Amino acid sequence: MGTHTAHTTEPSTPGAHHERDLLRLATAGSVDDGKSTLIGRLLYDTKSVLADQLAAVERASQARGGDAVDLALLTDGLRAEREQGITIDVAYRYFSTATRAFVLADTPGHVQYTRNMVTGASTAELAIVLVDARHGVVQQTRRHAALAALLRVPHVVLAVNKMDLVDYSQEAFTAIAEEFSAYAAQLGVTAVRAIPVSALTGDNVVERSTRMPWHAGPTLLEHLEQVPVHRDAATEPFRFPVQYVIRPRTAEHPDYRGYAGRITSGSVRVGDEVATVPGGVRSRVAGIDTFDGPLAQAHAPRSVTLRLEDDVDVARGDTLVATHPATTVGTDLAGTVCWLAQAPGAPGARVLVRTGTRTVRGVLQEVGPLLDVDTLRLEPVSGPLALNAIARVRLHLAEPVLLDEFADHRRTGTFLLIDPLDGATLAAGMAGRSPLASSVEVPGRCRAQ
Question: Which of 447, 424, 415 is nearest to 348 (CA)?
Fold first, then answer.
């Protein structure tokens, strides 16, 4: 298993999805809670499985001696995984209904793959936490809930699976739902929807169960279709990391200069005043161009090309921001990281720090304290950060960057630490104060000498 690496590159969303409302979600659960079967059921019952895929799964199920289609095989993408009976990768699945399109990050349940959960849930607007109705809330359940809270996932679904193995007991479901909700409340997670399901039989996944008439709430798919999608345009200031400067230099457009990128939060109109970060130069938006023609206004997550009234110095790595409220720019970056690499993270290490489209050199000045996701306490560290560790860090950067706090700006408040020698990703970070309000700061930091 040690030879496998996390698949962290999300394929582009199929074109058929782009006009529909899009929900990004992640799944998490302990080993053998039935997560792969649940995802397979969603894909199968929403008719999101191609004929050749279904035929391959049917053949694999028969080879295993099964009478029914093993829906878990729809999500166990690697052959080695299927042969070993385990899932150890992060894979992105796509499915859609008449109401909404979905991008689902399937993350493994093993303790040693905490980093995969962080990767998969980092952009999710909803997390499905699976529990086995026979076992209830276990340590890994609490760990996944803590990570969802750490990553500020707006909505959490508790899917109590395998209800068929507890005779569809309302009492068993209620006890689990109450225990999980109480724990989630300690994390500051209040938007929890508990749903009793059986992925194997399909009860309350897509179709409403006749075996659990006591459940008056929605099925899992109904909830996924109805949950409000977080809209940055209504809640966050404008942010536009510049990916590319367009200078066509054609006879038709001899003076054209546009800044291409994706609006990560907020909205922008022609005539709005914006500022460059880190330069701080102000100008106004002269035009908003797209492949389909100009727009008067655009909002997240639209990809556009912006033209400014003034000839200002803007390059890839800069960010165009709203002038109100004021932004913070600096060279001292503090935050919480999940260590993703086998190589340890020690104070004094030289790294590359990527925020948005900007990459600068930096030094890892302080490491710790360490977050214990089981107790939700920040504990002293006794050495370098190891794989899957979650800890507070402080970095000093060679150049100023935008210092958005993750708690307020979930997209621009993130950063990556990269090995300058081989380009490997070392850590994924969330800038600013600890996202877990219940975490307790304690002494015990390691400082670079």
Answer: 447
